[in-house]
Amino acid sequence: MTIKRNLQRTHLSRGSALIAIFWIMGILAMAVFATLAVVKVQSDISTSSSHGHRARALAGKGLALAMHREVDNGDPLLNFKNPEFEEGYQALLEPLAQNFGINGLINEVIEQQTTNNRALSSTLLYQLFTEAWGMDEGEAQTFLHSLVEWVDPNDQVTTLSGWERLNYEREGFEGRPFNRHFKSLDEIPYVHGYEALEAANPDWRSSFNVWTPGAVDVSSASPEIISLASLSTLGRAIDVESAAIMQEQILGSDGIRGTEDDGLDLNLENLLSEASVSDISQILDRYILEGEAPQYSKITSVGWSGTTKLTINLSLQTLSSRPIVLELHETLENTTYE
Questions:
Q1: I want to staple 225 with a disulfide (CB 3.0 to 4.6 A). Which of 79, 150, 221, 262 is the partner?
Q2: Is 240 exposed, middle or buried (0-12, 13-18, 19+ CB in 10 A)?
Q3: Strands of 295-305's sheet, edge to edge?
Q4: CB-based burial label for 283 (10 Å; 0-12, 13-18, 19+)
Q5: Residue 7 has pLDDT above 70, yes or no
Q6: What is the mean pLDDT of residues 123-150?
Q7: Whose CA is closest to 148, among 128, 175, 125?
Q8: 17 class by beta-carbon count within 10 Å (0-12 exposed, 13-18 middle, 19+ buried)
Q9: With contact defined as beta carbons under 8 Å apart, do 290 and 71 qualify?
Q10: Quick one: average pLDDT of 40-46?
């Protein structure tokens, strides 16, 4: 009986030891897997960081080349690919006046001395709001007057329905208006009456920038923007189809400025005449041709390495040989690791 009990105890001890061994093996396996996972993450981070630095260097190279005075769009130097190392860059230099300079259009409103509706209705900004985007005339007037009060350098109300400092303070908005021109489109929603613009055209941002004087470049703006620039109280003097024909005459069949098939000896008067504009003088100052001083440009340079892509967006103004940087943004993509 005693021998039998001893055998049972021996079996139990061996079984317990075996279970303990299995547990230890399991814990060791989990530790190994955890270590491998940490090593993989660290390796991915190192690889991603390396690709990120390389992508930034390549994007910077494309940016530097695009800024060179002797390099134009279409130059092979602006497009580089290395399939062996899965890297490259692509840079594009474009005029910044592809849409309307809103500060310039506000200046037009100020110059009209907007104390009566007739003068206000002759401005392009009013026509954009009402004729093109369907904003109520009263709401458009209030918003335009508030834009004027926002950029003028004093706290005195000089318009019929615009808001000044005391109006904003009564609503709990301290520090408004800024009493300067807009430095970013993100500031416009702070202006009284903005909600009417947002309701009329949620995509209003695509029509404006804060840098150019106001006129649009017929060689780079979309046909829709070119057509909108011809707005008057009588409607559009240039329809979208005619605007597209004007661009084709400038850019040639390849659609790229600075190549051999560009239209030569073109000027704005001839282009508008060929577009059958009856009264050129009314809209001539709303257009420029690429290269007219002062030149406002934007450069988009994309560099990539592996799965990492970095985009640099640069806006600049060129006065003589010294460019002035207006705005710079970087966007890094595809940097997550699995």
A1: 221
A2: middle
A3: 79-82, 87-95, 295-305, 308-319, 322-333
A4: buried
A5: no
A6: 96
A7: 125
A8: exposed
A9: no
A10: 51
